[in-house]
Design brief:
With 423 residues, the chain is an alpha/beta fold.
Length: 423
Amino acid sequence: MIQRILIRNARILKTRKASLTPSCDLLIEDNRIKTMLPSEAAQTLRQWFENLPADAAKQIEASQGVLMPGLIDCHVHVLASQMHLGQLGRLPNVLAVLRAVPILEGMIRRGFTTVRDAGGADDALRQATADGTILGPRIFPSGRALSQTGGHGDMRERNDVIEPCACTVKVGAIARIVDGVDAMRKAVREEIQRGATQIKIMASGGVASPNDPIHALGYSEDEIKAAVEEADNASSYVMAHAYTARAIKRAIRCGVRSIEHGNLVDDEAATMMADKGAFAVPTLVTYDALAQEGKALGLPLESLTKIESVRGHGLRSLEIFAKAGVSMAYGSDLLGPTQRMQSEEFRLRASVLGPAAAVKAATCEAAKLLQREHELGDVYEGAIADLILLRGNPLEDINILCGQGEGIQWIMKDGILLKGSAP
């Protein structure tokens, strides 16, 4: 039996236009938006709906609340239940998964109905949130991120002997070590076979890993090109962790579609990205979180010393990307207990680019990056019914989207009102 929901008297936030419509009625059939009508012209629709069997029809009165598409976070690590990633990679597999459950629940309560996992989550977690086994957003998994020996995904401490990496057998290991062109091709094929919807590579040094300076380059160009080719052969793409302008330009030359972080971008690199149609996924909130709470939560000393080298450039990177016309999607990249700060990225973005750009980054721009703009990221007929009803207009006050979902009246994912969402 077709399940139908009629949402009455909602003001629709159209993300692509960054505008608010007058009162509308929406008819949801199963998991899609079937019909949208101005409320003043929806009398016939309402009468038809009231004659449907009660067990197949539900009405929701929005009372002029603001209805917008569910939020999309394009850089999360749902398995990152603790700050020290080396220790995370040694957790028993069952424990690593169980600790991800409250992280996923927290994301959906904050209105994020879709996330792109940037290393760690696999097809099993995707299925679990899709079929309702656990409460959480729709997941686009990358499988394990790919790192060279000594790169950003190599969490082994320095020692006399380089021990074999256990990253291919431990669920908590969000990255695996891959060296060489042939090994890269095989690794990409393996992650895609396991359900990865995109491939994550480490193209520069990073903060959370022990041995790689921020300005170090990750992977040779031949290795990056091999990853891009194999991903493209599977109708997928490569996302690259990259901080410096040099690392960004190498990655873009090799065909990478999505640059993660990009704090140290310059005008030349940003222009190259815009010319190639590449996306940027800044993740500014994670540096505030690491600086404020990293030491207390067990972030290694080596990582603590790296934070300020990228933190101060984050807001400036937004201006550089925007000036060049680079499409920017929303990302948070939080670890451990700081995952609660996911929505604070809105405040940082809005402080530089304004609230409309911050909203677009987490909706229509993110949907484009996911190659799902035909069904996610805006409210229109035919779209998947991922919707959140807000207590105010985020185009006027971005704080409506911040916190733990206090500004959200209810959350719908795939046409289902989710239990446990904000009152």
